[in-house]
Design brief:
By secondary structure, the chain is an alpha/beta fold. It has six helices and eleven strands. Strand 6, helix 4 and strand 7 form a beta-alpha-beta unit. The longest helix is centred in the middle third of the chain and has 23 residues.
Length: 269
């Protein structure tokens, strides 16, 4: 570590899938995060069926956390059409929800959005054909634009991108190839080339690969809780990362861009 630098410890996990039967089961996980980390990142599928009651249970489970929490939603959180209410519940509990916003804490900047599917590389779905296909592609383009906008707002030297869907193929390897287009898209990698980050965290692919890299060498971590439990049975099911920052940039109350506690309207498709 360079002289004068400090370490900020980030604990990241996705696919908690908090349901009505989760009361009392997730608190030990959050207690371990509280002990080991300075900031917690939750990368989507926070609830199981996207129900407000599930979000309320999650808030109670998270009550042991006294450190900053930043999060994005996942596809499960949209299942019941109550995603805005879920975000409000979590925001009211102190969680910094990102849907194209940015957030800075302790000298580390976070940019996040849910992301979407569409496939990878030369097999990425194109904006052509039926209206339904075009709508699918536009959703991915909108999510990529939100990520780019959030990254552009950050002024910290250390930046982290949070997603639910994968920006690269490598971290979904292990899932059936037939569903790769529904697990992420290379369109989410493009903003990371324009605005490089220290790391990217996502979930969604429960049977994927824990780690990979973008084409430009940025580390990408799949922190789906089922995957981490299977891959690393001897340790708590979250990824712990040490981020070295300049003390001059540390400010636990600093936020950039639109206030991340405000749920902003999603762009029209």
């Amino acid at each position: 570590m360079a002289a004068g630098q400090r370490v900020v410890r980030l604990a990241a996990v996705a696919d908690i899938h908090c349901g009505k039967q989760s009361q009392g089961t997730l608190q030990p996980l959050f207690a371990q995060m509280q002990q080991q980390a300075d900031v917690v990142a939750l990368c989507g599928d926070l609830t199981d069926y996207g129900l407000p009651d599930e979000a309320q249970i999650l808030v109670r489970e998270m009550s042991v956390l006294k450190i900053p929490v930043v999060a994005v939603l996942g596809n499960h959180d949209f299942e019941s059409g109550k995603h805005e209410e879920i975000s409000r519940i979590l925001c009211n509990a102190g969680v910094n929800m990102l849907d194209g916003e940015s957030f800075e804490v302790r000298g580390v900047g976070f940019a996040g959005t849910k992301g979407f599917g569409g496939g990878f590389g030369s097999r990425t779905l194109g904006l052509w054909g039926e209206d339904a296909t075009k709508a699918f592609v536009r959703e991915a383009l909108n999510e990529a634009l939100k990520l780019e906008t959030a990254l552009a707002r950050l002024r910290t030297s250390q930046r982290i991108a949070l997603l639910h869907y994968a920006p690269i193929r490598e971290t979904v390897e292990g899932e059936p190839a037939e569903i790769f287009p529904f697990l992420g898209t290379s369109r989410l990698e493009e903003p990371l080339t324009l605005h490089p980050v220290a790391a990217v965290f996502h979930g969604h692919a429960h049977k994927g690969c824990p780690a990979g890299h973008t084409a430009h060498g940025i580390p990408v971590y799949n922190v789906s809780m089922p995957l981490l439990r299977a891959a690393f049975p001897d340790r708590p099911p979250f990824h712990l990362m040490e981020i070295r920052v300049d003390p001059a940039q540390e400010n636990s109350d600093e936020q950039t861009g639109a206030a991340p506690r405000v749920l902003k309207p999603r762009p029209s498709a």
